[in-house]
Amino acid sequence: MINRGDLSNEQWERLKSLLPSEKPRTGKPNHDHRRVVNGILWILRTGAPWRDLPERYGKWESIATRFYRWQKAGTWQQILEHLQAMPAAGYAYADEQGKLDWEIHYVDGTVIRAHRHAAGGKKGAKKMRN
């Protein structure tokens, strides 16, 4: 069963070959990558702490460990670069196919950090006296 926000079968088919092998050379096999990636996406989508990850994705510790291991190995960067290089992966293709609803699909990289005391401060700039 695919939960809302989880990877579709088409998305998974594009992604699975870009991930490390589920069967490492030594040790026990990894948990299903698709379930792990869906758990990571849930965390990224909700902004929740790892400990709040729903049990359907597996143990939060395992999911977090895999996320950070792949981050350190450069896996996420490689996936991004590969998908950006694919002609069918770009927004132009999805837009041409009518798969983008510009009311909900957008990228906003804005991050504004403020000091914790910034809230509730006096409005307006202070005037400098000579």
Question: Could you please describe the fold and organization of this structure?
Answer:
The mean pLDDT is 78. This protein has a domain at 9-73. The chain contains five helices and no strands. The radius of gyration is 20 Å and the shape is extended. It has 130 residues and is mainly alpha-helical. Residues 7-79 form the Insertion element IS402-like domain.
Distance between the first and last residues' Cα: 70 Å
Uncertain segments are none
Oligomer: single chain
Number of helices: 5
Q: Helicity, in percent?
A: 40-55%
Biggest sheet features: none
Overall residue-averaged pLDDT value: 78
Gross geometry: extended
Query: What's the number of extended β-strand segments?
Result: 0
Q: What does the radius of gyration come to?
A: 20 Å
Structural class based on helices, strands and sheet pairing: mainly alpha
How much β-strand is present in the residues?
under 5%
Order of helices and strands: HHHHH
Q: What would the keywords be for this entry?
A:
130 residues, mainly alpha, 5 helices, extended
Short description:
InterPro entries: IS402-like_dom, Transposase_6_like. The chain is mainly alpha-helical and 130 residues long. Helices cover 41% and strands 0% of the residues.
Lay out the secondary structure.
Blueprint: H1 9-16, H2 33-46, H3 60-73, H4 75-85, H5 91-96
Helix pairs in contact: 2-3
